[in-house]
Amino acid sequence: MNPKDFRERLAAERVLAIIRAPSSAEAERRAWAVRDAGIGIIEVSWTTPDVARILQRLRKAVPCLGAGTVLTPAQAVASWEAGAQFLVAPSFSAAVAAVAREHDVTYIPGVFTAQEVSVALDAGCTLLKLFPASTGGVDHLKALVDPFPGIEWIPTGGVTWENAGAWIEAGALAVGMGQALFRHDNLKDAVMALRRGKPAWES
Hints:
Elements (H helix, E strand, L loop, with lengths): L2 H11 L1 E5 L4 H13 L4 E5 L5 H8 L5 E5 L4 H10 L3 E3 L5 H9 L3 E3 L1 E2 L2 H9 L4 E4 L2 H13 L6 E4 L8 H6 L5 E3 L9 H10 L7
Parallel strand pairs: 1-2, 1-9, 2-3, 3-4, 4-5, 6-7, 7-8
Helix pairs in contact: 3-4, 4-5
């Protein structure tokens, strides 16, 4: 999936599901639950055991599959070999960015300050993860949107169903959600509500 198609899908999905679990079995269970709820973009974190095997098992079933917490070039290569179509990290790495370019994989580094945004932008990254989102809140995103008009944002870290809509309204292309995904009685309804622009907790 090329970067343009990935962005378009992300804008339509509104949610990037982050799978992080203490075991590979639990990670797979959560990934299937997310997919069955209609979320087509799933990231499996490298903090989860047997990430490469999980990616291999999911890659034919998930429309857009990626790896998260990718901190090293070795992890980036292993993710790509296992079928990851995008790479996400909590911070920017020039070495990981180089691997992503070599294999034509979308790289989404995490940033928080204006300086970090500038570094990522200089490396050609225009899809960025605001992390940790909860530390600065929605106002922090609003403060970054205007001076960096070419950036598309995915706030991650502390995003919940109660505040997801506010992040989208503030200029986020989509939101990244992990454990909070499952803190709703009906995940499928919550996802559809967010895409309609309705607060998910009212779905």
